[in-house]
Specification:
Layout lengths: L7 H8 L3 E9 L5 E2 H10 L3 E3 L4 E5 L8 E7 L15 E2 L1 E8 L5 H19 L1 E4 L8 H26 L1
Antiparallel strand pairs: 1-7, 1-8, 2-6, 3-4, 4-5, 5-7
Amino acid sequence: MRHDVNGEHAKETLSNAEEVVVISVLSRDPEGFDGTKLLDLMMVCGLRYSSAMGVFHRFETESDDSELQFSMLNVVKPGTFPIEKMGEFMTPGITLLMPLPGAIDSSVAFEAMVETAMVVVRHMGGELKDENRSVMTAQTIEFARQRVREFERRHRLQRHMQAR
């Protein structure tokens, strides 16, 4: 697959995260999300598939050593997508995970993650959910945005103190 990426760097970033911001999109259709349509949307949204991990990642740039912005997993365990069988694949939803620290610009990564979730909502009839699977409102998105900013601020301060 053209967009296949080595998932090692992403896996490492996710496993070393101090915090993870989670947004799920659950299908309103009892049949779930269509795999082909989901795959097409993810490619348009700049996500790349990692055959090693079986999930999608979005990085800050196209470079192989670029920092991870967020990952997309299937809500059905083990969380993977059968890339070779996306034509007959259906899922009740997806989960987007943004590790902190992760991207160089966490705020941009967060906005990209929210926009990707909204693309799925708009084009596939989904509903935004938070990490507890409660409905995600504009207010909870703003709360998550503030959490990212606060993490970034603390992280910057920490780096500044270490540089002294």
